[in-house]
Amino acid sequence: MPVRLQGSARTAGRSPASCIYVGGGTRYANPFRAGHPSPFVRRRAMTAHEAVHLFDAMLRGPVGRYYAERFARSLYGLDLMCTCPLDAPCHADVLLRLANRTEPRLATCSLEGPAR
């Protein structure tokens, strides 16, 4: 079963082919960042948990589902690497669940039309 690893893009480049970096600077990066202003509480910085929650919610939205399915197909079966500490919430956990919930050819709903 694929796992989340901690490291950088450089570290991922030296890792096995079954590992991909999903952190900052990639199309899989979380646009919501811990430390940025929180949309939940005024004048407070967003926590890592809130940033991951927003990323998850975004991928469940009408536009996000399109990206979620593309991400799931391309990340299926791969270990995911991010700079987040392993004991902290991370968007890579969301991507792991998404990518490995089913086999990519069994996607259920797609804005691209029926699977062929």
Task: Spell out the blueprint of helices and strands.
Blueprint: E1 4-6, H1 9-13, E2 19-21, H2 48-60, H3 64-75, E3 79-82, H4 91-100
Parallel strand pairs: 1-3, 2-3
Helix pairs in contact: 2-3, 3-4
Notes on the structure:
The protein has 116 residues and is α/β, with parallel strands linked by helices. The chain has one domain (4-106). It contains 4 helices and 3 strands, in the order βαβααβα. The chain has a 3-stranded parallel beta sheet with strand order 1-3-2. The model is unreliable at 104-116 (pLDDT under 50).
Short key terms for the protein model shown above:
DUF4326; disordered C terminus; 3 strands; alpha/beta; about 120 residues; three-stranded parallel beta sheet; DUF4326 domain-containing protein
Number of strands: 3
Radius of gyration: 15 Å
The order of strands across the largest sheet is 1-3-2
How many separate domains make up the residues? 1
Strand content: 5-15%
Q: What is the molecular shape?
A: globular
Tally of DSSP helical segments: 4
Give the H and E element order. Answer: EHEHHEH
Domain DUF4326: 14-96
Organism: Streptomyces kanamyceticus
Protein name: DUF4326 domain-containing protein
InterPro entries: DUF4326 (IPR025475)
